[in-house]
Design brief:
Largest sheet: 2 strands, antiparallel
Helix content: 10-25%
Distance between the termini: 19 Å
Radius of gyration: 15 Å
Strand order of the largest sheet: 1-2
Structural class: alpha+beta
Shape: flat
Number of helices: 2
Number of strands: 2
Order of helices and strands: EHHE
Strand content: 5-15%
Length: 92
């Protein structure tokens, strides 16, 4: 765990990237940074039996998309992020 208790997976782009000049294959799907053609949401829709899910939607969609044949990529450098916790870690 890092100083801010973030999940560390030890994969690119956390370390020095060995792949240069192209997106990197990633094991996770991120709802807040996902771009795809329209067939993605047709082939891998949000689960209608999990209404209003927030914690777990990315795992659910990521697993189903991977088994459907989709791959996930990330830019070589970080371009966007968000922090859920307040500075005093009492709220989200």
């Amino acid at each position: 765990a890092g100083d801010n208790k973030h999940l560390r997976h030890g994969q690119q782009p956390e370390g020095v990237s060995m792949i240069q000049g192209q997106p990197t294959l990633q094991p996770f799907w991120a709802a807040g940074f996902s771009f795809a053609r329209g067939h993605f949401v047709v082939n891998v829709p949000y689960d209608q039996y999990l209404p209003m899910i927030f914690q777990g939607e990315e795992i659910s969609i990521g697993l189903r998309a991977f088994t459907y044949g989709y791959d996930f990529y990330a830019p070589q450098v970080g371009v966007v992020y968000h922090i859920y916790a307040a500075k005093d870690s009492t709220g989200k």
